[in-house]
Amino acid sequence: MNPGLWGNRLAEYISQKLKERDIIIIDIIIEDWGCYLPIQNDNFRLALCCGHQYGDDDQFVIFTDPKTTKIRKFLQVIDTTQQLTKLTNAVKEILENDPDIHDIKWREP
Q: Global pTM?
């Protein structure tokens, strides 16, 4: 949609690798900033977001939705720690074990 912003191939790659770890991506939704990957989860909306990072052609960004371990849904607070930890650990493992991926920078929200 926007020139210089892409992430579809990264989204497809991550989706396939997560499926191998029993984390199911429901769809790959193309947004103007990249790709939104909703994940099968019963208690709250959970997704992975992939996009191109402004700069060099080979810089990408991946983040989660939600980005915090506590969210509000109706009148309750839901602890997302277990699901986010499983997801972020899987992504970390996927990226760090691929020899073609390098210079990974992790950042806490």
A: 0.85
